[in-house]
Amino acid sequence: MRKYIIRRLLISVVILFFVAFVIYALMRCLPTSYVEAMARQKSMQPNSKSYEEWMEQLSAMYNMDGSIIQGFFQWLGQILRGDFGDSWKWTVPVIEKFNDTVWLSFIMGVISFALEIIIAIPLGIIAATKQYSVTDYIISIIALAGISLPTFFFASLLKLVFSVRLGWFDLYGLVGKKYLQLSPFGQFMDKAYHLVLPITVLVVISMGSLMRYTRTNMLEVLSADYIRTARAKGLSEHKVVYYHAFRNTLIPIVTIIGESLPGLFGGALITETLFAIPGIGFASYQSMVSGDIPFSMFYMLFLAILTLLGNLLADVLYAVVDPRVRVA
Length: 328
Description:
Elements: H1 2-28, H2 34-43, H3 51-61, H4 68-80, H5 94-129, H6 134-148, H7 151-165, H8 184-194, H9 196-222, H10 225-232, H11 237-259, H12 261-266, H13 269-275, H14 280-290, H15 293-321
Helix pairs in contact: 1-4, 1-15, 2-3, 5-6, 5-9, 6-9, 7-9, 7-13, 9-11, 11-15, 13-14
């Protein structure tokens, strides 16, 4: 197992190198950037230099005056030293802005992921054990609705019903108007109150696919010969379903769990933007719109690392949930 993990990590480093190059090349080839906007703004000031002169000066300042290959290795050398540069939009170091926003997204991601597992997996099992019943149809409709609903539509619908019509929640933001007047516990509850709708959106949109995935795999396992043998031996239906069948359903579910790692830290860009939640997803969206190349490159590189780690975690968990799987 240790040799396998080391080999996978080395392969991941090679993949990450090429992913980083693609990210850098794409960001360099964008039609506009913060540097161009800054040069245009400065050139409009009285008695200022021309736009071309400002572009030349700012490009040299941000190592963008050379070729893509040269700029990439300069950027790679900086990040290997732990220097990710300063954010052009937020005017602070990239790491500082990242640290200020990622933990809110992580809390939202962990809560929504836990609720997704708690709700989706049991409902998927119930739908499989009661195939073609009314319960199965209702659960399938809920799952298909969660899969089909676009995030922006469902979030807008919740805001229309619970914020505009009923007035139970604020339309935007993480805190209310009286946040500073509240006690520490009151401030905590105020933030939790404002996260109800965003987390609801994340749970409903994501649990549909896991619910259908669990149901499909449980149906396949329940029709296996060893399940019929277990029932013929007189084992209770509860033990047959949750001990024998569910354990063999865990392997495909582990794949989904491993792939969800980027979402825990990467934030929900659409949901955070619609609700104006200052998480990493909202910050990355604002940075990309503004042409903030340093922060955008760091964010995409961070997601690439999480994706590689998630795939490695899923492969290792295969051997944990199923003793028949051995990694050579």
